[in-house]
Design a protein that fits this description.
homodimer, about 5% strand, DNA-binding, mainly alpha, about 180 residues, elongated, 7 helices, 2 strands
DNA sequence: TGTGTCATGTAACTGGTTACATGATTCT
DNA sequence: AGAATCATGTAACCAGTTACATGACACA
């Protein structure tokens, strides 16, 4: 149940319709918590039913503008401050584990491919970093920058790890 | 659909019953791809229905021993070598993003707590590294070691990142 | 007039979790 | 006899995805 808190978070900065929020998801939260249209609309209705948000205005084409309520703010705060154990379940890591089942050369190629893909991801994030005008006084930017740093370090770590793995595979080839 | 491939992977090393596999999941794949009992049994039946595995023996208490088939091996191979884009969706990262909604002191505390938790995770993995007797000649160990290295580097990266974030939060406190 | 964008919703499906349920065998 | 373990399954639920469906409004 994270989408609901992402939505609450966006609404805590400014009210908006489902449609607005979708675009905000795409711009600000795209790399952190992507949302689908269908899921967002259902969740907004649920949140409204539970009183965590409310319709503050209606406009053309059935537009409903939502705002966060006090109950919503309390729930957001509660969730943000509640630590959570996350099992770190990455299908790509499972793939590595199962590389034992293919020929060493193919396994090596798999790492080479991943390395290229992750370098591209890293470049994307670096572009985001460079393109954004960070305002330290704005808490949104402040923590956004920290979240981005996580992404940057994660991708760098991946790239380094893949290089390490390739070296390891090369220097001690498995017995033929 | 990763559990199915994890199961295929385990069966490709040795045949076994659902019950056997469950224990193998807990020991070898616990940190990579945890499985629940209920899911595994349903998946084994599905895999058998599709001919990717087959019952090779039945024993006491309704025990069914499965083995991977050629079709199963082909499917495993296909999946392992198919690269996949993974959106890296971590609820903890979303939490960071939403820290903008709580007081700076509380946000700082959240990082301190995470730092402690991640240091503990790192210690766990280091214990696994030390406790295992790695046999480079065994492909399972070979790639298992590489997967573990990912976990180690990931946790180290997290710890470093949290220290970086704390410094950043301290050196440039937000305007009161 | 017709295309693009604004705007909301529902249905079917997938992968996963929790809880419930049953019973055979082994060991003390 | 009773507890622990072996062994399998089902049902209800949750979060998320893809696809389908509808219609109002704005602008060229």
């Amino acid at each position: 149940m994270s989408l609901r808190h992402a939505a609450l978070g966006l609404l805590s900065r400014a009210p908006g319709s489902g449609y607005d929020l979708l675009r905000r998801f795409d711009t600000t939260l795209a790399h952190v918590w992507p949302a689908t249209q269908s899921q967002l609309y259902t969740e907004l209705n649920r949140l409204a039913a539970e009183g965590l948000i409310e319709v503050v205005a209606t406009g053309a084409r059935g537009r409903k503008e939502y705002a966060i309520t006090d109950a919503g703010r309390a729930e957001l705060r509660r969730w943000v401050l509640t630590p959570e154990e996350v099992p770190l379940r990455d299908p790509r890591l499972l793939r590595v584990f199962l590389l034992a089942d293919v020929e060493p050369e193919r396994a090596r190629e798999a790492f080479v491919d991943r390395l290229a893909a992750d370098r591209a991801h890293l470049a994307d994030l670096e572009a985001v970093l460079a393109a954004t005008d960070w305002d330290e006084a704005d808490p949104g930017d402040r923590y956004g920058r920290i979240a981005l740093e996580f992404g940057l370090r994660f991708r760098r770590m991946e790239v380094e790890w893949e290089r390490w793995a390739l070296e390891r595979l090369d220097e001690a080839p498995p017995p033929a």
